[in-house]
Specification:
In chain A, about 45% of the residues lie in helices and about 15% in strands. Chain A is an alpha+beta fold. Chain A has a three-stranded antiparallel sheet. Chain A has a three-stranded antiparallel sheet with strand order 6-7-8, covered by helices on one side. In chain A, strands 4-5 form a two-stranded antiparallel ribbon. In chain A, α4 runs antiparallel to α13, α5 runs antiparallel to α6 and α6 runs antiparallel to α11. By secondary structure, chain C is α/β, with parallel strands linked by helices. Chain C has seven helices and six strands. Chain C has a five-stranded parallel sheet with strand order 2-1-3-4-5, with helices on both faces. Chain D is an all-alpha fold. Chain D has twelve helices and no strands. The chains are: A alpha+beta, B alpha+beta, C alpha/beta, D mainly alpha.
Amino acid sequence: AGIYPLRKEVPWNLMPPAAEDVAYQLDEAPEGCTTIPVGPFHPTLHEPCHFAVYVDGETIKGCDYRGFMTHRGIEKLCQTQVSYNEIPFIAERICGICGSVHATAYSQAVELAIGLKISRRAEYIRTIMLEIERVHSHLLWIGVAGHLIGFDTLFMQAWRVREQVMWFCEKLTGNRKTYGMIVIGGVRRDITPSHADELRGLLNNVEKETHQVYKAIVGDTAIHKRTKGVGTITKEETIKWSLVGPVARARGVNIDTRRDHPYAAYDEMEFSVPVVDTMDVWGTVLVRVLELLEAIKIIRQALDKMPTDGPLLTEVLEPIKPMQHAISAVEAPRGEAVHYIITGEENRPERWRVRAPTYPNLQGVPMMLLNNEFADLPIIIGSIDPCFSCTDRMTIVNVRSGEKKVMTKMQLEEISRKSR
Amino acid sequence: MWLTSKIKQAIYVLTKGTVTLPYPFSPHPAPDTFRGAPHWDHHKCVGCGGCADHCSARCILIRDVCQEVRIMLYEGSRCTYCGRCADVCPEKAITTTTQFELATDSKEDITERLELFMLTCQRCGRCFDMETKNLIDKMELKGFKYDNLEARALIPVITEHFDMKTYQKTESFSRPKKVGE
Amino acid sequence: MLKKLAQKAFPRSLWLYHCNSGACNGCDIEILNVLTPFYDVERFGIKLVASPRHADVMLISGAVTRPTLPLVKKAFEAMPSPKLVFAIGSCATGGGCWFDTYNVTGGADKVVPVNYYIPGCPPRPEAIIYGVALALGLVDKKVAPVEMKQMEFPVDMYKMNKAWEDRNVIYKLLD
Amino acid sequence: MDIAAIFINILVFLAFAPLFEGCVRKITAKIQSRQGPPVTQPYYDILKLLGKENLTKGNWGFTIAPMLALASILSAIAFLPVGNYVNALTEYADIITVIYLLTLGGVAVLLGALSSRNVYAGLGASREMITMMMVEPVLAITFIMGALKVQSLGVNVTITAILQNGYTWSAGLMVLVYLMALQAFVGRQPFDIAEAEVEILEGPFIEYSGPNLALFKYYLILKQMFYATVFVMVFIPVMKSGYYPVDILIQLACTSVVFVIIALLGSTNPRLRIDQAMRYYAVLIVLSLCAVGMSTFGI
């Protein structure tokens, strides 16, 4: 529609004309297939995004994806209206489940940009918060996966186990999910020894329950029938489509940002990255359960090794110089979240780019869906644990000619692969 | 195979028993460190606007009706309960209560409105700010004091640490007759 | 007679239809949390259904973004008549942190007539249950607009200011 | 008295079916370790649905379908000798009419789904058709086996045939097959593929709202109770006290036990895909055919 909101001269609250009539052109169905709109308010997706699935009888032949309905213009808002200290609180609300991942990535990016070294204790507390978030996010996903294949008891039991983690976070940080703990320069609240042993007690019975749930579902052939051999995508394809997180680890690709580029206090943690090569949704279930147990181990190590002294929050004294660049990657429960920031004048970032893990994983979904049953669509889409509220489309606009070229997925991959 | 895992699941599930909380009929309070709805204490609040500046949801609005009165409106409908205003307030006037049952049928219910009496200077009527940044106050700190607004003449005056020499000097001081003397 | 009976049965069995119009899925997870064992709403006969045709209550979570605006309107019209609308979370009540950006049309009440607001980011499952109980009439409202006036003369402020003013006056030193 | 028996039949079924549905939901909730709805919840659901506004699609198929479905299941119930009291209709009826009425109910659902012109309803209708075609034969064969034993097609005779002539090997196999198919008859969790709430949004009933939906929901609940009572009447040797109301209560008690089994199976199994379900039904049909084969040789 010829409006490029991220440009500097466009005001942040400009309201473009309503685009009700501009229907998004999905590419037409291959011959002999009916188009089934898996519409925005589908109970399985919990989030508005439109999959037009081309189905021939029951098998899926192709799928086109019109997403980005939850694009809220956060980057424009944070460049014009809000200053540095408020952005961690907005970054947390990019994605409801992996909130503190985005807050940590943003704070680390700004600290790298201005060269601020935060105290070791604050880094440990950040690691603990990230791992607690991984625990409750994986428990959440196991429940949702159970719900998607119709197995509601697993959904209820997994979320019953997860409830204690939420109560503890509420006691520690003041809110169940958007913790608000991680700001630029450190952490807002301290983990007192009483919190620490309460957390240890909590982790023991969460681990015990997870083992029981794992033993119960691993032998269950009914679940195997629904998840084995579903949503298969080979290892080369995974690398070509650059999928990240548990989805890639379930296909044999051994990547993990916590180990490859350690941040916060991960350099002092020993943990093993579970990699399974069953190439399908069942692999994702295994990887997530094992990662859950790994996260519990990491939290225990962090609690023991945490230095007791050190300020929680180091002040940034001199004003932040504009035009400093920094990039930081954090391992979210779904993959790798990358934040890129250019600092700007009057206490606001010049440009803040968020690339969330679901964005690459979503490119792989049409590949996974090919010639599977339509009944498996929810579990395949669910297997990448989509968090559409994080994804953002990359549109290249060359200012001189004003011509807009939407990067197709393939070009995007070439550019990112060249840099690797 | 299938039957054994089903029995295992059934046993695991039945040993847990029902855990539903009788919530609306018996209270389930939030922990005291909970960040609920913020509450302003108008006795302590000096109307400095620090919270309005630092609110990430920009839902604290300030308006100066006239020199004496400043109105602060907390628009609860957009608040994201991050507790930032409570941290930033210099007078600790804002406390995040543990109130989370905020369901209403009209948006005005969750707003808080403060009308603050801003102190103004008796003579010029402008808002008085005990800050020490403007030039005149800086001069004052160095020991000068202007006697009246019109002439704006600066006369040396003894500072806190009193010493007799400067005292004698001021005895013989005479006002400059012409400006620039 | 049947009409009266049906009216009485309406609050006892509410069927929810969940519309996430641009939320960060924090509130959606809390809505699903409300069905889980600890806060089970099914004891009030509340069930999550999949199609607006079956539903009586529409849960909107998320500041309605531009692409989802017509869809929320269409979903609202698809619901049969005695219907309620709940706005869950600060994004739906007032628009959240991004109430005025270019792609967000602010809260849910600019799109559909909203009956009950449940603020919170994300609201606790108890807060959602409290909102539902409020709609069912089991509990009463706990919030009211707060008006505070500081019009009386702040004597202590005046004294403090007076002390600041005559801290270096000469004649005071003499007596 | 015989005519009154028919109405008693229908009234008993209409009253108790939602109660059993409530029990199933309560047991599923208890298994999921939560408190679950009150047992009388389906009554409130249906009452509320009756009070809602009826959004119709306008074409006649859409409005006829729910009434047809409910009428067919009610007439099938009227033939059943509940409380082993032979009412006026059971002498004239034979098993072919009962099976025909059941398939008529399924066809009514298909008519409703296809006339609502919704993509999901079409998908749900095709799945409903598959389950109906693959599963109805198992019920037909149970009745035929009874008829073979007694050499007559009368409903009252065939239903009590197996109990009269004592349990043979083939009857035992038939009990097993019926139990395995019970989940599919009733349309509960492992096999509720037709209205899979997650994938295809309530399947054939997606376009219905208000009273039409109430009729369809009632049809589903009644069908559930019909299959459970048929199982109890055909296979379970229950002592007969000769006194009509007491017999009805005994049979209701046995059906409640059957419902408990349905609930347990339903809540501990994920939903199967339609092709896996078809392979499962094929095995069932083969088993039931060989059971009939065995019973003709008198084993």
